[in-house]
Amino acid sequence: MKTCNFCGNKNMQQTFSEYTYKHDDKYMIFNNVPALECEFCKEKYYEAKVLKQIEKEFFAVQNGKKVSKKISVPVEDFSDVA
Ligand SMILES: [Zn+2]
Fold first, then answer.
1. Integer distance in angstroms from the first to the last C-alpha of the chain?
2. What is the 68 CA–ligand 1 centroid distance (Å)?
3. What is the structure's pLDDT at 2?
4. What are 22-67's pLDDT values in tens digits?
């Protein structure tokens, strides 16, 4: 059984959540990604094969594969708004 690397808790829950992949200045958001979540500190753990699939899909999209949805994201430097 898996133990949380951060808090040592052993209670992990299967969840499906959003995952943001970033490579250089490019982002891709995946919804409903399976993860084990620590019930105590909420740290998420992804299986290596899940992360590999995400990476593969990211590069496929960079090479022209169509995605189901695109959003635009505002960007601001914190020193300009603080
Ligand atoms: Zn934890």
1. 45
2. 33
3. 82
4. 999 999 999 999 999 999 999 999 999 999 999 999 999 999 999 9
Q: Is the pLDDT of residue 69 over 90?
A: yes
In the reported structure, the alpha carbon of residue 10 is separated from the centroid of ligand 1 by a whole-number distance in angstroms of 8
Q: Cα(69) to centroid of ligand 1, in Å?
A: 33
In angstroms, what is the span from residue 14 Cα to ligand 1's centroid?
Answer: 14
Mean pLDDT, residues 54-82 taken together: 96
Dist. CA 19–CA 49, nearest whole Å = 14
Q: What is the CA(53)–ligand 1 centre distance, in A?
A: 25
CATH architecture for residues 12-63: Roll (3.10)
Task: Kindly report the three-state secondary structure assignment for every residue of 5-16.
Answer: CCCCCCCEEEEE
